[in-house]
Write a structure and sequence with these properties.
four-stranded parallel β-sheet; about 550 residues; alpha/beta; single chain; 13 strands
């Protein structure tokens, strides 16, 4: 379902042969939209702009959408939508459980790789952005009807497990007594031990071999470390109101059995070659090759990510793959995609995208760190925001701050500013929703009923109604371009227009059909705010 402005724009373009570039009218008396298309065409044709404007107006068939267009000034064309058409569009949206989100005809299986914390380490500030952004993509694409497969590519394999498990053995530690912070403390002790004691380092290397060869005692300890970590991750995911569960976990270990066959396949077909003892792929346009297997016979991130693409396309049926990681990994993924295309693992009809994000900065504009220069945990950031607001409001503040700017940009984590209920913040949107809910509660307490928007005589009513009908269109943009800041901007504008409507158009103090219509407009606003906030992973409170 296209929005009314989109339908109008298409009609004009069909007659004029060019994009009308509709702009909101500067004043209500000029209608709803204005176009300078006649001025642009007149310049090309060497004609008078008002004559060109008249020609366009005479040829337009938009009586079903608009009142008669007006030609103003040197040749601008003003368009005013019919209020009955506007009311009908809002009513159709209000009756739609999806609030106007279009269910796509081009359904795809979409794999989204996000969050990806490391076992035996608490989630840190970098995982904040990956988790929030990936969850938003999951919600938006699912809302349109796509089959979304979340993949939490946790770090659950590698040499670090040798030192972790050996440290457990040295200490006689009962892993059943550990939680995730305790596992991270174990990691720090093991790492220090590794650096100080060569005999321990040798035992740790031997333990890695045992893990890789399937030694039962080692595998049991490894699995317990994973279980401890997942329990900690899941607590954080629940606190963050994100959709990830254990069913979405597909860690590095998932691809172990695939690495050898991928390496053999690439070498057999001459795609991978031997270079200084390593097996590598040279891709055009890259300064360094992808290392499929290093000179010691080990596999790294390049090999794992190529194998993951092959698995996701062949076994999961992915038609679109989205990776949400730090922007500094952009070159890695460009190289991995290039290798996968060379190998035919990533067919031309499967879209692979890396969505890189910027850093979270402290109030001074520098990378956020603990006082001793360490990594800030994700939980500590949530705690900091909750010092200024309730958990739901604090989370709204964090998520909106994260999503409301271009993802590639860094942003400053300022809990006090982010939790304000005024200005361009998540809590401001929550407050607008709760205000809608309060009006409707009061109406219900007074036995007032409403069903549809019927009267839109005031400019503030019309402006709010028109903006409501653009919700589905904005969700489509986020789905296509992976730009959640555009949804944030839309919702902020909606809340702002609702505030203006509330000030200029009394709802409960009006009477008859006007009151009924305005209550329906409040209900439609509440519906879109609730649906939009949910797409951002933000709770829409009934009261604040």
């Amino acid at each position: 379902m296209s929005s009314l402005p989109s339908v109008l724009s298409q009609r004009i373009e069909a007659v004029a042969g060019a994009d009308p570039e509709l702009r909101p009218a500067t004043k209500p008396q000029f209608g709803h939209f204005q176009s300078n298309i006649a001025l642009r065409l007149a310049k090309q044709e060497g004609a008078k702009p008002r004559d060109v404007a008249q020609r366009i107006v005479d040829a337009l068939g938009i009586e079903d959408l608009c009142e008669t267009p007006e030609i103003a000034g040197p040749g601008f064309i003003n368009f005013r939508l019919r209020t009955d058409v506007l009311a009908r569009a809002v009513n159709e949206q209000l009756a739609d459980p999806q609030a106007g989100i279009v269910q796509t005809d081009d359904l795809k299986t979409v794999v989204i790789d996000y969050s990806s914390p490391n076992v035996a380490k608490q989630m840190h500030v970098g995982h904040l952005r990956s988790t929030i952004i990936g969850d938003c993509f999951n919600r938006v694409l699912s809302a349109q009807g796509h089959h979304v497969i979340a993949q939490n590519h946790i770090g659950d394999w590698g040499r670090q497990f040798g030192m972790l498990i050996e440290q457990v053995v040295d200490e006689g530690l009962d892993l059943g007594s550990l939680d995730l912070p305790g596992a991270e403390a174990l990691y720090r002790r093991a790492n220090a031990h590794l650096n100080e004691d060569e005999a321990f380092a040798e035992r740790a290397r031997e333990r890695v071999v045992k893990l890789q060869s399937g030694d039962p005692e080692t595998r049991t300890a490894w699995q317990r470390l994973i279980k401890i970590s997942l329990a900690g991750f899941n607590r954080t995911y629940r606190r963050m109101n994100v959709l990830l569960t254990d069913d979405d976990v597909a860690g590095e270990s998932t691809y172990n059995e695939l690495l050898g066959p991928v390496a053999d396949d690439l070498e057999a077909r001459g795609i991978a070659v031997r270079d200084s003892g390593a097996l590598v792929v040279f891709a055009a346009g890259f300064d360094a090759p992808a290392i499929i297997r290093n000179s010691a016979g080990g596999y790294g991130y390049d090999a794992t990510d190529v194998a993951a693409i092959r698995h996701r396309v062949n076994d999961l049926g992915a038609q679109r793959i989205i990776y949400v990681t730090d922007a500094r990994q952009a070159n890695h993924f460009r190289l991995v995609f290039a290798v996968a295309k060379m190998a035919g693992y990533l067919p031309d009809d499967v879209e692979a995208q890396h969505v890189g994000f910027g850093m979270v900065l402290g109030p001074g504009g520098t990378p956020i760190k603990t006082r001793d220069g360490g990594t800030v945990t994700l939980e500590s950031l949530l705690d900091a925001a909750e010092e200024h607001a309730s958990p739901d409001v604090a989370l709204a503040a964090i998520k909106y701050a994260d999503l409301s700017n271009s993802l590639q940009k860094d942003y400053v984590f300022d809990a006090e500013r982010m939790t304000q209920t005024t200005g361009d913040t998540g809590p401001y949107l929550q407050y607008a929703h709760s205000r809608c809910a309060g009006i409707l509660r009061e109406a219900a307490a007074r036995d007032l009923t409403w069903s549809q928007v019927g009267v839109l005589n005031e400019p503030a009513e019309q402006e709010l109604a028109l903006w409501l009908t653009r919700f589905g269109e904005n969700v489509q943009v986020v789905s296509d371009d992976l730009t959640p800041h555009k949804l944030c901007t839309y919702l902020f504008e909606l809340a702002t227009k609702f505030s203006s409507f509330y000030e200029k158009c009394p709802v409960l103090k009006s009477d008859g059909e006007v009151r009924t219509s305005r209550l329906a407009l409040v209900a439609a606003t509440k519906q879109v705010l609730a649906r939009g906030l949910d797409l951002l992973g933000i709770v829409a409170p009934e009261r604040m």
